[in-house]
Amino acid sequence: MNALAVDLGASNGRVVVGALDDQTIRLQEVHRFANDPVHVGQRLYWDILRLLHEVKQGVSRAHRAFPAIASMGIDAWAVDFGLLDANGELLANPVHYRDVQTAGVARAVGDLLGERWLFERTGIQIMDINTIYQLHAQALRDSVPLREAQSLLLIPDLLRYLLTGRRVGEYSNASTTQLLNLRTRDWDPEILHRLGLRTSLFSEIVQPGTPVGSLSAAVCAELGVPSIPVIAVAEHDTASAVAATPAETEDFVYLISGTWSLMGTELAQPIVTDEALRLNFTNEGGFGRTFRFLKNIMGLWLLQECRRAWEQDGERLSFSEMTQISERAAPFRCFVDPDDPMFLRPAHMPRQIQEFCRETGQDAPQSGGEVVRCVMESLALKYRYVFDRIMSLTKQRYSGLHIVGGGVNNQVLCQYTANAVGIPVWAGPDEASSLGNLLVQWIAAGRIADLREGRAIVRKSFPTTAYQPQDRGAWEQAYAVFCEVVEGRNGHARRRTV
Question: How much is the pTM?
Fold first, then answer.
């Protein structure tokens, strides 16, 4: 049975056809494309119509290569949205979550609603990029698109609407907005009321695995394809990646490694304790009405931005070359907190890293290799920092860590992570979001019984690479220094803002 997965990340997108035969999955990538934001004036936008065009090209190429496609689904990044007018037409390009519009807005909303009250109702961490803060920022500046809007659709919902004409919201992605009640799993009317948001803006919520129409007649005519049924998969790409994590047990910790790193575990019930709020953990919706209890970590964004900055300076390096030069640098010279706000919208990432080190009393890295080594060691140590807190909050111990997503191809970082966390790391598969997208489609079609069977099929189809901890004494010493840097920096930041 062939199914088509559209998987959109913050830096690129891909269209993949999956075949399920004899309990084995075969993947064929039919189209890959860049996802580049666009600056217009003071705003940073997603080029949503370009993305729609690329998705269409992928569907067309998939049909030519695999004429019998039983269904398709779309997953993408979270929190960002498009606004439609009374005629169902797009009012403006979606604003990028890294746009400066939300600077300081989280605090204003926290003062208005109460952070504890909001966390108790939604279970969602406080991050400037969340939909709730984007909407409040637009309301404060009396945004014309928001004032005129009749419908709000998150990115995968929006693309699905543009392909099918059907407007619905999907649970896993909607949960990230900080506007969904974690108990009713629906939009929270009290939050919307207190923020002055019209309930009519928000579409019906459906669970992953729900059929939501087919490609429209206009799209089929344009592309020369049949009316392929569309399934609302776990549309947040992280939810899809978690669905495809090849864990053998129900209690496991995952690390989705990409532009963002997301580390967490899958729970039947959310954790909304004071400690979870203080540590800024989140309870996002997952497949099968589960909760993804996790923490966002800035992730490979730091390396991507270093590479971009060096290219602008005239030095072109591949990611493998960046890793190679890092191995020639001395270990544990300096550390950064990957989640420090100065790294969210950097003008020049290497200089920001140097500035962080100077501000925290460390020797700043000078060469490119030293910068990359600093980033990779800091990421691995931040994973340890978050892992320890997951164990504390869940009161569970875990025998290993599953890494999935594009970061599994960075073998040095995977080994550093095993060294830092001190337990085995199982890396793979790299196309976890696409696989999770496909698994949900096959479960909806009755080809796979449930997620447990789906994960077993992933294990059979895509072997993982195991990394055992090494140099434990040196990494423990480094972790103690890293904690001093991070906690000292955070304490100073809190004092500075009181």
Answer: 0.95
Separation of alpha carbons 202 and 137, rounded Å: 18
| Active-site hit among 237, 337, 339, 340 | 237
User: How does pLDDT run across 425-469, given as a tens digit for each residue?
Assistant: 999 999 999 999 999 999 999 999 999 999 999 999 999 999 999
Please give the CATH number for the structural domain made up of 247-428+468-498.
3.30.420.40
Q: Which of 266, 124, 288 is nearest to 208 (CA)?
A: 288
H-run or E-run covering 404:
strand 401-404
Q: How far apart are CA 147 and CA 161, in angstroms?
A: 21
> How distant, in Å, are the alpha carbons of 17, 174, 440, 442, 459 from that of 454?
17, 24, 9, 9, 9
Asked if 264 contacts 275 with a C-beta cutoff of 8 angstroms, the reply is no
**Equal CATH topology for 2-236 and 247-428+468-498:** yes
Could you write out the DSSP letters of every residue in 112-156?
HH-HHHHHHHH-----TTSHHHHHHHHHHTT-HHHHH-SEEEEHH
Domain boundaries along the sequence of the chain: 2-236, 247-428+468-498
What CATH number should be reported for the domain whose range is 2-236? 3.30.420.40
Token digits of residue 490: 């955070």
Residue 22 annotated in active site: no
Q: What share of the chain is helix, strand, coil (3-state, %, to 5)?
A: 45, 20, 35
